[in-house]
Amino acid sequence: MLEEHQIDVNYANSLVFFEEEGFSLSSTAALRIFSYLDGWER
């Protein structure tokens, strides 16, 4: 459980990195992905 959360955090950090690189679409993708994960965990 904790390991899965750590993976999510690392993935979020990767999305932040891409956002800084100028890929504005990553923010939209992040919202969709995290909304899906949040619903899936429940």
Structure description:
This protein is mostly helical and 42 residues long. It has one domain (3-41). The chain is 86% helix and 0% strand. It is built from two helices and no strands. It has helices spanning 2-20, 25-41. The relative contact order is 0.12. The model has no long low-confidence stretch (mean pLDDT 69).
Descriptive key words:
mainly alpha; 42 residues; 2 helices; 86% helix
Q: What is the H-and-E element order? A: HH
Number of domains: 1
Query: How can the largest sheet be summarized?
Result: none
- Label the structural class: mainly alpha
Question: In terms of quaternary structure, what is this?
Answer: single chain
Which regions are unreliable across 5 or more consecutive residues at pLDDT < 50? none
**What is the helix fraction of residues, given as a range?**
over 70%
**Mean pLDDT, rounded to whole units?**
69
The share of residues in extended strands comes to under 5%
Radius of gyration: 11 Å
Q: How many helices?
A: 2
The rounded distance between the terminal residues' Cα atoms is 13 Å
The dominant shape is flat
How many strand elements?
A: 0
List the helices and strands and how they pair.
Layout: H1 2-20, H2 25-41
Quick gist of this model?
The chain has helices at residues 2-20, 25-41.
